[in-house]
């Protein structure tokens, strides 16, 4: 039986691919893929084979690609660093295809696209479980270490975490690399290259998640890679527009933090927000979209015929249209000293990393929406006790009924209604939480507190240059106030498009938009529909430029 991770291409598919690459022959074993390469080629085996090797276990083969099998995983579409080595066998003949040519072939031949992408996705999951990747040494209770783990986890970067608080041979390990505990956290790759206390930006660069962006004027620049931004990226790039998508942290947005989404159409058994985001991330790149993380936008300026976007870590980005898909972020609880526990006991998402951290512990979930409910059910599989803390008297006020029923049925979840967290206690990490229920104060030994409350729009980068509601969510289309429209002469001749803001050519979709329904399905819908608005805008601009 053929393993779906390692399928064989048909003779016809191989013939099609030959026109996209070069045929090469290797008499002796030769490394054609090396650990850490960011720009690496795709290979189809004609004769011989390619041995795939875990760089930490060089004597063992993960697999051997044989005749009409192919190398690569989804990272080849995004220029992420390759996590394995590939070495030819003796007397091997290959087709070598560059990533750019491979994308062209995928776009043209759906049969090849289906085989490759399915295999790439399956391999990515398998390799993550079998290849150690980068080593990260640091304390589980360190905010700095947590920030690195959170970034790598959400961006699907393979790594092996070594907790310095629990590692018996830590001193000897550090001595081996001439390091001190004060150097932590450190990253060590399979070539023993060391990065001491690396920034998130440095990690993005060295893993290929962040790209060097050029001076091109894109048709569309999408700011934010949540469901709305990824949907816009997929639809815009699939329709031939040049698209750049950036995000300040990782693909997925708030939805990427959901452990399981069960009410999204087409997934009857549910899908994790992370898997949904990762699939959208790959799908957009399949159609030629450029995605780069992390970039925090600090301002936007309108020029003649395009926008300039200023980011914290790259040159000015240019685009004819911009889509604001920056969503909303959960608010910090208004408690004294809470900031010192963020990353060391207080968190704003619930992923597999968090689940492993809070095994057999007492945890608290603050919030009564679907994200809080999903987190409670997910973490209940690991924690000894889960407290769901809500201000309302009814947990069903804002949460979907299917989640409510499961929470009620779960033996180790206790719902505290009419309750608030009023104090967080601890020395270097969270040790206790004080909760007020009605007029009664109680202290719980909660070491991990997850908050999903009070979403606020991420619109700081727009700096009050567009029309918003009183909470800062962006007005679009018919909801834009008349005074804002009067300042733009273009709106004397036409009404703003459905998702257009008070600035022509600047659009807003998803949770950042005033009046939006805070659901993944609606965000995806808005992200796909906005592309028709962009086509209208670009067509009208081209018409005006032609006349002038």
UniProtKB/TrEMBL annotation:
Keywords: Flavoprotein, Oxidoreductase. Transmembrane segments: none annotated. Pfam families: Pyr_redox_2 (PF07992). The keyword Oxidoreductase applies. It comes from the Bacteria. Residues 5-123 form the Cyclic nucleotide-binding domain. GO terms for molecular function: oxidoreductase activity. Gene3D superfamilies: FAD/NAD(P)-binding domain, Jelly Rolls. PANTHER family: THIOREDOXIN REDUCTASE 1-RELATED-RELATED (PTHR48105). This is Thioredoxin reductase (NADPH).
